[in-house]
């Protein structure tokens, strides 16, 4: 998921603890986007989970105060791409089932 409006003093461990304490699912990785020159946080992070169900649960904590700021949690582009691939696979499978000759 993409997490926005993060306090600039927050680090990866703080975000990990936030999602762990919210019981949304097991966190795989946390990456805060940082300025390449200064190394300072840009207030945006990506949080990866082991299960896709955790992504939906994680989005429910949007608006939660975290270190004094209300965060915004939304599906990242990677999650949207995964969902599109799954939907296409299901559609293709259904079409193949319809087009099969029942006498085979």
Provide key terms for this protein.
single chain; alpha+beta; two-stranded antiparallel sheet; 3 helices; 39% helix
Q: Tell me the Rg in angstroms.
A: 19 Å
With strands numbered from the N-terminus, the spatial order across the biggest sheet is 2-3-1-6
**Proportion of residues in helical segments:** 25-40%
SSE sequence, one letter per element:
EHEEHEEEH
- Report on the biggest sheet: 4 strands, antiparallel
Range of strand content:
25-35%
Shape: elongated
User: Which structural class best describes the helix and strand composition?
Assistant: alpha+beta
**Secondary structure tally: strands:** 6
Whole-Å distance between the termini?
45 Å
Mean pLDDT: 86
Low-confidence stretches: none
What's the total helix number? 3
Please characterize this protein's 3D structure.
The chain has 104 residues and is α+β, with helices and mostly antiparallel strands. The protein has 3 helices and 6 strands, in the order βαββαβββα. It has helices at residues 12-21, 52-59, 77-99; strands spanning 2-4, 27-34, 41-49, 65-66, 69-70, 72-74. The model has no long low-confidence stretch (mean pLDDT 86).
Secondary structure topology:
Blueprint: E1 2-4, H1 12-21, E2 27-34, E3 41-49, H2 52-59, E4 65-66, E5 69-70, E6 72-74, H3 77-99
Antiparallel strand pairs: 1-3, 1-6, 2-3, 4-5
Structure at a glance:
By secondary structure, this protein is of the alpha+beta class. The protein has helices spanning about 10-20, 50-60, 75-100, and strands spanning about 1-5, 25-35, 40-50, 65, 70, 70-75.
């Amino acid at each position: 998921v993409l997490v926005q409006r993060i306090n600039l003093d927050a680090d990866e461990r703080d975000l990990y603890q936030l999602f762990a304490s919210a019981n949304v699912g097991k966190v795989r990785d946390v990456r805060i986007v940082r300025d390449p020159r200064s190394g300072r946080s840009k207030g945006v992070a990506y949080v990866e989970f082991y299960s896709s169900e955790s992504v939906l649960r994680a989005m429910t904590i949007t608006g939660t105060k975290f270190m004094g700021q209300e965060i915004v949690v939304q599906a990242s582009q990677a999650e949207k791409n995964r969902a599109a691939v799954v939907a296409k696979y299901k559609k293709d499978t259904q079409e193949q089932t319809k087009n099969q000759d029942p006498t085979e």
